Amino acid sequence: MQTRNGNDRGFLLFLTLFAGLYVALIVGMLFADATYTSPAHLIEALKSDEIRYAAKLSLTTSTITALLSVWFAIPIGYLLSRTNFFGKTLVDGILDIPIVLPPMVIGLSLLILFQTSFGAAVESVLPVTYRIPSVIIAQFSVSCAFAVRTMRITFDQLSERPEQVALTLGASKAQAFWRVTLPQAGGGALSAGLLAWARALGEFGPILVFSGATRMKTEVLPSTVFLELSTGNLEAAVAVSLLMVIAAIAVLVMARAIGGRRGW
Amino acid sequence: MIHFDSISLVQGEHHLSGINFKVPKGDYAVLMGPTGCGKTSVLELICGLRSPLSGKIFLEGRDVTELSPAARGVGYVPQDGALFPGLTVGEQVGFSLRVRKRPEEEIKTRVIQVSNMLGISHLLSRHPEALSGGERQRVALGRALAFGPRILCLDEPLSALDEDLRADMCALLKKVHAETGVTALHVTHSESEAQELATLHLRFESGNIC
Fold this sequence. Notes:
The complex is a heterodimer. By secondary structure, chain A is an all-alpha fold. In chain A, about 80% of the residues lie in helices and about 0% in strands. Chain A has 13 helices and no strands. In chain A, helix 1 crosses helix 13 and helix 12 (about 220-230) packs antiparallel against helix 13 (about 235-260). Chain A starts with a helix and ends with a helix. Chain B is an alpha/beta fold. Chain B has a single domain, classed as Rossmann fold (3-Layer(aba) Sandwich), CATH 3.40.50.300. Chain B has 7 helices and 10 strands. The longest helix of chain B has 18 residues, at about 165-180. Chains A and B meet through helix 8 and helix 9 of A and helix 2, strand 6 and helix 3 of B.
């Protein structure tokens, strides 16, 4: 007869097997990238003006996108979490569309939107399509949806009681939000920003369609990987991929460090 | 004075109607009743955190049924204290005055006055996570009293405390009531608490308060 400890061990082994397989897949991919390339390849990649431009553009646009996404996600997440209104289910569903739509379709939809009279009006003030603003809009369209989900979950998990107490103490809803609720949502906002940044850094499909992949103009790092691959330069493609991996891990470590210090 | 005039509300799956009761000015009323009967809802109705389906609520003779929680001037001490994370005890106690944009000097004086009354003046620079259960309840009480409310609502404020602390807090609540003359409505399951504190006993039974 199987002992109770034996049963527990079997179950733990079952859990560990699946966790181990997936972790091995992730580590295996990173290891393959790291061993395929060499420091010389990385340095060579960084010496290229085009790649340096793409890296700069990627880091700048991803950071702007992450900040914009959190700026939008906080009020949207709070609205969905704390209020009930007519059509809420519909709005909630619409906010998930960028997550489930194929990336190319998002790019194409943005391209068409900016061909309409509304788009033409915007373009007449600020040229967007095939220019840098289109990179940010393409990244924002997808990243913001992930940030909104994160902020909604953050506010759902925060007790409403302190906010209600603040109202009884004479605070307006806005004061209760700014002084009591928002400071508690710092960890969630950081996660939302991090997720949005990582999504923006890896965004490719919508940017390819809406911004193009013109060197020294709208080329971001994922476009570089695509362009280098399409010309058969696998070493440069892997070196750029590794740069993106390093940047993503650096942000992750930074966020964990800040979060750990503040107890998030 | 607290006065419920034919209040009806939805409580869980039940529809309660025709709730009438009065707590005269300066009384310390203790409301008891079975779990889930709607005691907390009564406090939320007084504070303006929920609206009745029909009926009127009068506080100090004023119809507050349509007023926002901020405009009612009711001190509220919820069950778990619900202190504000990230704010020090001093900032919690001064919160109501700060949102009213009172001068810093006045806030400081009032925070010292209230914290002396409640015996929390040594805790002013601490954050909620560094407080014991009894200290948290004292701070929550101080935060509710700082702006000088005429009505005080307490939702099982002693339920999480052990016997010794409970006796201390009972004594403190009596002292606060005597010193401020506030009209209090205190919700509890404890008969001994009611015996100790109440100048008016209320029971929530069969959907009505008597």
